[in-house]
Amino acid sequence: MGETPFGGAASPRPRCIAGSHLTVNQTIHVTSSLTSYQHEKLMIRYRQKKISILFGSLLIVGAWWLPVQAQQTTNSPNEQAVTTEDSTIPKAVTTADPTIPIEELELLLKPFTKDELDGEAQGWMFLLKTKVKELSDAEIAVKRKNRELQQSKEAVDALEDAKKALEEAKDTKEKIETEPSPSASVEANDAAVEAQEALKKAQESVEEAVKEEKKTQQDKTLQGAIDQAVESTEEDKNKAKTSDEEVAKVQEQIGTISNKVVTDEQQQKKTEQGLDKAQEKIEEAVEAKTEVKKQVLVNITKLRDERAGLSDRFEVVLEELELKGGDVKLYQKYVNAISGIKVDVTDTQGTWITIVGWLQSKEGGQRWANNIGKCIGIIAGFSILSVILGTVLEKSLGMFPNISVMLGQFLVTLTRQGLFVVGIILGITALEVSIGPLIAMIGAAGFVVAFAFQSTLGNLANGLMILLYKPFDVGDIIEVAGVRGNVQDVNLICTTIKTYQNKIIIVPNNSVWGNVIENETSSPVRAIFITVRVSYHNSITQAIQVLKDIANSHPLVLKDPGPWIDTGELAEYAVNIWFMAYTKREDYWTAYCDLSRIIKERFEQEGIVIPLPQHEIYISEAMAKEEGSMAQRFKGMTLS
């Protein structure tokens, strides 16, 4: 029987080889004493085993690798998309200096294309997001500090209660020594129990304070925000921490109080001293924590200023990107979401520090004070400018006599009010308020407003026609829409007329422009027309001559054009003579009344009768003889 290279005996039977537990290496090194059949069969088994091992290994690797890849593909399709997209977006270059002046940033962004601006937007978005994260961590740290302070203050109160309980237990013990009685013993036991409960409560409060501190210390992000804000030494920082030693001291002192009467006066005194030290230590920690919180709040104000500065520069990038066709809605929503200041009114110290810090910050109170000052200055400046330009325009229009008074008033009013409105709009923009949405809203509501104010818009259009074509002016005497009087005012909506009865009539411009307008004062010369009645018994020639003498001698009657007097018509009971004389527009009523009076007086002097309407009644002889008749009553009477 032969041996294998490994020292084992080789069996001449193939089944022994097949049934043996040889390794792969051992199988390869089988001695040549085996038959060729056995050797070939062994090699086949070796190959099969090798293939099985290789196939199994591939299955194991595939079973591990494929689920991992599938999970990565399933869980992060957005990351792949972002990576693919980011690979085509240029890297931001303007973010190298986050404090770059806004004016320089605007000029720097002008040559950029849309794709380049996409990269700039993402770069500034990353800076803003990082700063917001720092600000959020600092604000969370303040809330944690508030809870720590609350727990520490509760611990101080609990220690104070424990000290009072120990004092009561001590007083009760002294009472037992002076006046021993069963009731005193019971009272002493109760006092000891209360003291022990107070100490346990103090221990729990201190433990809760330590737990709150450990939560903050274990959170490296929040602790980093606190360390970044605190500018004190390590000794001051350690004062702000309540160590486990205080907890151990309280636990040790609890053991000095039994459920029975306290007999060891020295131990009780030691316990009280320990409580005093623990209380003093925690009070120091409260003061240190308050200072830490204050410094974190100051740092929050600084971070808010930095966030505001990044937001302003990010807004500049977004404006330029939007002008060049980019979609900035999501970016803008993010900026709007992270802007503003939330104040916790329950935290008095934090609220006060936040308000004072905001008022003193460059991006807060100083910035808005500057903006408000600009707004007030712009509005005041435009108000003064509107008055000055309005006055200059009003005086300048006097050099153009062809311009009507109402058009001049309209231009002056438009100049003054228009400049004032422009000042208000510019003042609003100085407050960093975008007027784009306001203008868009007004434009969108224009159709509704136009539909609701159809008649008003019609008056407006007719008012413009009146101003342009000036059929009358302020001070003219007109008759329109059944109203006669002096024009007091004309605007784009209505015309105000004062009648001879001293009534103020407001006529819409639709009724003015849509009706016949009779203007009596449009010409500088007016004609006085009087119809003079002369009796048929008087000489017409004489009457006409008297009227001519009156017209020629009156000082308000113009020589050119001269008066015109002639026979008008032969009426039923008189001859009507038409008297027409011309006078200046401003002398019309004076001359009219004066001529009427003079004509009456001269006709009386000349014996010319101005007849009144007459009726002749003829009564028959039979009617006159009839007794009781109406005709008999008129007998002997001359009726005219």
Keyphrases for this structure?
640 residues; alpha+beta; three-stranded antiparallel sheet; 65% helix; elongated
How are helices and strands ordered from N to C?
Answer: HHHHHHHHHHHHHHHHHEEEEHEEHEEHHH
Estimate the helix proportion, in percent. Answer: 55-70%
Mean pLDDT: 74
Structural class by SSE content: alpha+beta
Strand order of the largest sheet: 4-3-2-1-5
DSSP helical segment count: 22
Report on the structure:
With 640 residues, the chain is of the alpha+beta class. Helix content is 65%, strand content 8%. The protein has 22 helices and 8 strands. The protein has a 5-stranded antiparallel beta sheet. A 3-stranded antiparallel beta sheet has the order 6-8-7, covered by helices on one side. α6 crosses α8. The N terminus is likely disordered.
Layout of SSEs?
Layout (H helix, E strand, L loop, with lengths): L13 H6 L4 H5 L7 H40 L1 H10 L15 H8 L4 H65 L3 H37 L1 H10 L4 H6 L4 H11 L10 H59 L5 H10 L9 H13 L4 H33 L7 H26 L5 H17 L1 H16 L7 E4 L2 E8 L3 E5 L5 E5 H5 L4 E2 L5 E10 L5 H14 L10 E7 L4 E10 L3 H19 L14 H5 L4 H4 L7
